[in-house]
Each structure stands twice: as C-alpha cells, then as structure tokens.
Amino acid sequence: MCGDGLQCAFHRWTFGPDGACRSAPGHAQAPERRARAYPLVERWGFVWVFNGPTPQYDLPSAEAGDQWRVFALPPQTIRCHPHLVLANGLDLTHYETLHGFRFTEAPRLTASAPHAVTVDMRGRSRSRFWRGASGTRHTDLVARFTTYGGSLAWASVLAPIRFHVLFTGRPDRQGHCVTRTIFLLPHIPGVSWLRAFGLMAMLLHDDRRVLDTIDFRPNFSAADAPLKAFAAVVNALGSW
C-alpha cells in the first residue's frame, strides 16, 4: 500500500485507485499505463472485491438501525466445489432427511433479482433437544436463505431468535471450497448467542460430513427448483 494506491514490489511503479500509473522510477513523467482495477468495499473487518469492472449487486446487509456484534470463524476447506457449499441452504429436501427438520408451511422460493435466489422457511426440529436448545419447543423457527451471485450466501434466522450468518466460498487449487463464516449477533450477549451458535453448529456439522464426500452431477429433480434457479444465476454470470 502506498497512500491510497498500490506499489509494485519489483519496480516501484505506483498505481492509483483507478488503475492509472502515478509514478515510475527512471521516468520523468508517469507512463501512460494502467493496471486492472476492481471495485471494493470494506465491511465487517474484511475487504470485498467484485471480480469485474462494475459491481452487479451489493453486499447483503442486516437491518438498518440495529446493532450487531460481528464474529468471523477461521477459514475452512471443504472438499467439494464452492457452489455446492453456498447453494446447500437452497436444498430444501435435505433439511428433512439430514437435519430432521419438519416444515410447518411450504417453503417459498423467490428469485428477487437476476443475481439472487431466496427461500423462506418455517418449521421445527423433530429432536426435543434441538427444539429446546433453539427455543422452538412451543413455536416455529422462521428463517430466510439467499444466495448472491456465485460466491456469497446470507442466512437470516428471524424467529424466535434473530441473527444473521454470511457464508463465502472460493475455489482453491484443487477445486475445493475455502469458506469463511461470519456471524452477526445481537449487540448484547445473552442466551440468543448460545442458541445461534448451537443451531448453526448442528447444521454445519451435519452438512460437512456429506459435503466432504459429495460427487455432484448437475441433474435436478422436481424438488430442486431453488438449486436449479441458483445454477441459472451462476451460468448467467459469464454473460455479464
């Protein structure tokens, strides 16, 4: 970093935020050269870069005016493609078969924008332990899961506790997923924190056991409408 620009470690050429060369040792005037520049934003202690000249969508965000405490888990590597990790929350059937979750209303699928796919869900765990741990012994768990583009997913638990989780995914050299999980929890610590961490730990642990061994082929059944919508979003990214 050199002020608000970047300096090459080999030759000390300096480039501004727009990519234009500002100075170069041995040149009386900066050469008319330009580096590739990407739009970025800083949020939650991370730098987010859009891999293109113009952002096609914004980062997801929590409700304006509310106070949230941010916790980022260490990076993890899951041995499958990043798109499988990020679209996992759109796989409605696996909530019942893997997690023992019973829907009390039919999930609602919404393609809210060319880049986003959203599923709204309501139901309860069949496990007495997890109903008690999540505070859903006498009420439904209400949640929303949205994917943005091909590298972000945003989960919101709306009731009976309220928190958000952001999932990221990028491929490593082996084609596996390097992921970060970022929690946005109520500003004041309490039982809701324990329930939030407990609920996500249960879901992610069950998912990880399968995702580390999965060999996916892009064939969709009638129950896979959200996954098919996500695949359409990813395939359309190449045309932007």
Report what the structure shows.
- The chain is of the alpha+beta class and 240 residues long.
- It has one domain: Alpha-Beta Complex (Naphthalene 1,2-dioxygenase Alpha Subunit, Chain A, domain 1).
- Helices cover 21% and strands 32% of the residues.
- Strand 9 and strand 10 form a beta hairpin.
- The mean pLDDT is 90.
Question: Quick gist of this model?
Answer:
The chain is of the alpha+beta class and 240 residues long. The chain contains five helices and 14 strands. The chain has one domain (68-237): Naphthalene 1,2-dioxygenase Alpha Subunit, Chain A, domain 1, CATH 3.90.380.10.
Number of strands: 14
Helical residues, percent: 10-25%
End-to-end separation = 30 Å
Going by helix content, strand content and strand pairing, the class is alpha+beta
Q: What's the tally of helices?
A: 5
What CATH calls the topology is Naphthalene 1,2-dioxygenase Alpha Subunit, Chain A, domain 1
Report the principal-axis shape.
elongated
| Poorly predicted regions | none
Beta-strand fraction estimate: 25-35%
Report the order of strands and helices. Answer: EEEEEEEHHEEEHEEEEHH
Structurally, how many domains make up the residues?
1
Question: Gyration radius, to the nearest Å?
Answer: 21 Å
Nearest-integer average pLDDT: 90
**CATH-level-2 architecture:** Alpha-Beta Complex
Specify the biggest β-sheet.
9 strands, antiparallel
CATH class: Alpha Beta
